[in-house]
Amino acid sequence: MIAYVKGILTTIEDDSIMIETSGIGYEVLCANPFHFQQHLNKEVKIHTYHYIREDNQLLFGFRKKEDKQLFAQLLNVSGIGPKGALAILGTVSVPEFAAAVEQEDEKYLTRFPGVGKKTARQMILDLKGKLIVWLPDEDHEQTLFNQEEVTSSEKRARVNEALEALKALGYTEKELKFVHVELNNSKAVNVDDYVRQGLQLLMKA
Question: What ranges does the record give for the region Domain III, renumbered to this chain (predicted)?
């Protein structure tokens, strides 16, 4: 089992990144590869899930260990394969997903690509009680927000980076204009949060 890959990020594609280490290039499939744009040609450490089947072997990569752990949990749900699990992780944070499962919010869960009512109910049945360690702590999140001061120029740069990531996923300039306005009014503090909010807005449109 390959738990992580550490090396030089050499290439970013629409659905994967390439990491070179010890003369070997590892292709790693990711939910949002362009999140790694700032690390291009630099050393990175990617948490990986080694997906093995009789006729196929794939590496899926994640920035955070909890993303990898949730991916593994999703693969245990009947009706969800690796592509479906990756699509879910590309549009939501782990705490948000955990909260939706614990609250049995089927309407929220059916917003993810390829997830209907039957699959949403199966996720609740299979995962409820197993994700509580990741439930959001509102007081903790508020404290973190208060501690990080973001200037106007930093906010613009982060919003623009998020928009570039969304554009790389295939969304049009027209669609992104609406998202741009909403993100400018957002209280998010990092690029990942802007991308997630943008995807949620586009899913609603």
Answer: 153-205
C-alpha closest to that of 113 among 92, 130, 131, 142: 92
56 contacts: CB under 8 Å, gap ≥ 6: none
Query: How far apart are the C-alpha atoms of 5 and 30, rounded to whole Å?
Result: 13
Give the tokens for residue 148.
């990080």
What is the number of alpha carbons within 13 Å of residue 50 lying toward its C-beta? 6
Contact yes or no for 153/166 (Cβ under 8 A): no
* pLDDT tens track for 89-134: 888 889 989 999 999 999 899 988 889 999 999 999 999 999 988 8
Separation CA 59–CA 94 (nearest Å): 20
Length of the chain: 205
**Domains of the chain, start order:** 4-62 (2.40.50.140), 65-134 (1.10.150.20), 138-204 (no CATH)
Average pLDDT, the chain: 85
Model-level pTM?
A: 0.67
Average pLDDT over residues 52-79: 91
Q: What angle do CA 109, 114, 117 make, to 5 degrees?
A: 50
Contact indicator for 46, 5 with CB cutoff of 8 Å? yes
- For residue 131, what is the DSSP state? S
Query: Both tokens of residue 204?
Result: 């609603």
CB 91 within 8 A of CB 99: no
